[in-house]
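ENTRY TYPE: protein
CONTENTS: sequence, structure tokens:
***
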Amino acid sequence: MTKANVDKLEPSTAAPAAKPLRPRDAATLILLDRKGDEVLVLMGRRHAGHAFMPGKFVFPGGRTDPADSRIAVATALHPKEEANLTAGLGRTSVARARAIALSAIRETYEEAGLLIGRKGAFTTTRRDWQGFAEHGVVPSLEALRFIARAITPPNRVRRFDTRFFSAWRGDVAVELADGGPTNELEELVWLPLAKAREADIPDITGMILDELAKRLTDDPLLHPGGSVPLFRRVRNRFTREIL
């Protein structure tokens, strides 16, 4: 990766920050489905009016909220996925890893109207999780696979330390016909991996799709505990390292 590619990790229209900001934890979910021999991926187009990545096709996702750490689950993260999430750069506790994973599930509901979990009684006082209670779905983490991690370069007005997860469409307990309540994505489409790579996507999204395609080639079922790349800029050089 050349230095010229470093600044492509975020849209060029973003103004540099006055001083480096600490990246905020965030999570994204790459939902997969199979159609014959093809693997499809769910993507949505961000509204043109958004300040961050307007008009781009992205995976559902967003920042981790404090309430995500206090949500009951039907099943925990697989131990190998938990180990990967707590390894590498920084000090990610087991509790924080769990919250980050849960934020990927919450954002997928909010932006795409897809509730990942198991049918059953679920109660919570957390407003952002009321949809799971209303539809009788207990969030479940065992299906999540940690695919990659990317940290926004330091000269950006918004910085995220994003963990990219994947899950299969069969792990969705409820699909809402009208999508999620936030309406942050203008349209949702299921695209073959190769077609998704050709869409109007951020450069980092393309890199993650490449990583996912390689992993699916080696392990079509995405067993727990695969290697996880970390993308970040170190001393003005874009790097890819394995956690």
About this structure: Residues 26 and 49 are 21 Å apart (CA to CA). The helical segments are 79-86, 94-112, 130-134, 193-198, 203-218. The mean pLDDT is 86.
